Every structure is written in C-alpha cells, then in structure tokens.
C-alpha cells in the first residue's frame, strides 16, 4: 500500500489534519477511467450508509475532473476507508504534488528518495487511495482526520466536506479533458 510510499503534505485546520501521498511511478497524466474496489461488508447499517455516501461524493468529484466511471478495465481503482480510532501512519515528505506533476509528466525509474515521517491522525480518519489497475500498485492517497469518531453517526455534509478536502489535493484532470472542454466553448 502507498502508506509505505510517500507523503507530500500533512496540514491542519483546527484539530483536523489532512494531507496526501503520491508515488513517483504514477502515470497521472494518462489515467482516464476509474472504478471502486468493493469493501468487505460491514455489520452496521449506519457504517454501510456512510460508505455509500462517501462513494457517491468520490464518484461525483472524479467525474467533475473528467474521469469516466468504467466497469471494464479502469485505469484507476479507488479504495476508501474510515478509521474510527486514532491512527499512526508512516508517511513521506515530498515536493508538493502540483509542482511535482508539472515537472514530471512522464513517470521514470529515477526519482528522489522518499523521506519518511510519522503522521498522527485523530479519530475518524478518511483515507482514499487511488491504485493503478494495470501496474497493481497504489499511486496516490489523500486523507483527513476528524471525519467521524462514531461509526453510527451520519452527516452527509461532513462526509462531502471530507471528500472535497481530500480531492482538493488531487487536482489532476483526465488526459485531454481540459483541451476537449476549452474547444467546445
């Protein structure tokens, strides 16, 4: 998993932390389609409902960025999970993702060394991981803490805000999406 991969930033707002990690081997400018990894079933119906809400918001956000949902050989697989307890993560200090993307349009075998750091996340951390389906490895993950400390609570507005916070760090549009949409106006 990418937790052993990288960390570009871990920022805080109030008691909430958020950040993202990326892999130097990600082909971010080539991904066009996505699908979700099915999670193991939960016994708690409230938890299942929260996961469905999160999935809906993730799908909406990726589609806003031009990615197409596909059940047939998607480029990216999306995994998401809420950790209800405190969480110690291993992350990595890196150049900001946006800056790295501009300078590295094509993935290469040569890259900077990963510099490990420890990240402490408080109760209710939402972790979203994007996996390169073809390469079978994680290429990006975003996370935010303080989403929900109680699995039985439901706040669709808060879940939407958590997904937005995470995907505000993944500002990558589908290959050709901006060009296609600028020509149509």
Automatic annotation (TrEMBL):
<dbReference type="InterPro" id="IPR025411">
    <property type="entry name" value="DUF4136"/>
</dbReference>
<feature type="domain" description="DUF4136">
    <location>
        <begin position="20"/>
        <end position="170"/>
    </location>
</feature>
<dbReference type="Pfam" id="PF13590">
    <property type="entry name" value="DUF4136"/>
</dbReference>
<protein>
    <recommendedName>
        <fullName>DUF4136 domain-containing protein</fullName>
    </recommendedName>
</protein>
